[in-house]
Amino acid sequence: MNEDLKVNLSGLPRDYLDAGAAENVSAAVSSQVPVVEPEPELVVNPWDIVLCTSGTLISCENAIVVLIIFHNPSLRAPMFLLIGSLALADLLAGIGLIINFVFAYMLQSEATKLVTIGLIVASFSASVCSLLAITVDRYLSLYYALTYHSERTVTFTYVMLIMLWGTSICLGLLPIMGWNCLRDESTCSVVRPLTKNNAAILSVSFLFMFALMLQLYIQICKIVMRHAHQIALQHHFLATSHYVTTRKGVSTLAIILGTFAACWMPFTLYSLIADYTYPSIYTYATLLPATYNSIINPVIYAFRNQEIQKALCLICCGCIPSSLSQRARSPSDV
């Protein structure tokens, strides 16, 4: 009887106590056995795939331009140096987009984020600055047509290249040198880890360069129209030729400037008004067209050029088509 009192002091039935003891034992055993949780599946953002694909296309396309200019000694004029600078900047931008995808899903760390964003900022900055330098070179080639082919022009071109690449590299080093939002997320822009102030400076700089390019292309358009008018008067076919040549030149300039604005303006304006709290889909939707500008640049500036077309034909088929060798440059080829 004393044994029964000692075991059943709680007043619960014996079979309930036995069941409870069994549950406690199983719980103690399970707490000692490590629980292996399944590893989370790697989910890839479709927008990142599109950006990586865009980067691959940018890299392949601009690598062709860089190789053509580098391996052809005749393509050393200031114009080709600037086109080569544009192609090199876009090539690095494409590589940066590919590296960003690889690091984002395979090697995640603060250092890789800073290096990647630094490369992308520097390369896209150099691309935009190269476009401005090409615009300046085209204006000088028309405004100072008699003295354009001189040593002074070559020196000025090298000065522009040094300045634009030096500025772009400095902009790319800012996140790496500490101007980032990794320690304070509230200061992040739409592109992490760039700060809101950093993105604002880049956006304002772009708007300034776009305004300068617009002004230069307006002046170029006036010069082209004046030259076409003079040529038409000399050949006595003002009514038809002057209209066709002028319209072609204006259309070319409109395509160049319109494409540049359409690609970069959405992301520029969005970076000014938005921050890290905005949905990321808006960032992707505005950033993707900006990358398309680096895809279109070789078509507008390189593959339309007669000398580059000849070099490309020599590489591909070992001959120059008669249509290229006999083609004359007109005032509308700007």
TrEMBL record:
Membrane topology: Multi-pass membrane protein
Protein location: Cell membrane
InterPro entries assigned: GPCR_Rhodpsn, GPCR_Rhodpsn_7TM, GPR12, GPR_3/6/12_orphan
Gene3D superfamilies per the UniProt record, alphabetical: Rhodopsin 7-helix transmembrane proteins
UniProt KW Cytoplasm keyword: no
Keyword flag Lipoprotein: yes
PROSITE patterns cross-referenced by the UniProt entry: G_PROTEIN_RECEP_F1_1, G_PROTEIN_RECEP_F1_2
Family: Belongs to the G-protein coupled receptor 1 family.
Name of the protein in question: G-protein coupled receptor 12
SUPFAM superfamilies with a match to the protein in the record: Family A G protein-coupled receptor-like
GO cellular component, one term: plasma membrane
Organism encoding this protein: Leptonychotes weddellii
UniProt entry keywords in alphabetical sequence: Cell membrane, G-protein coupled receptor, Glycoprotein, Lipoprotein, Membrane, Palmitate, Phosphoprotein, Receptor, Transducer, Transmembrane, Transmembrane helix
Membrane spanning stretches: 47-70, 82-108, 114-136, 156-179, 199-218, 250-269, 281-303
GO molecular function: G protein-coupled receptor activity
SMART domains: 7TM_GPCR_Srsx (SM01381)
Positions of the G-protein coupled receptors family 1 profile domain: 61-301
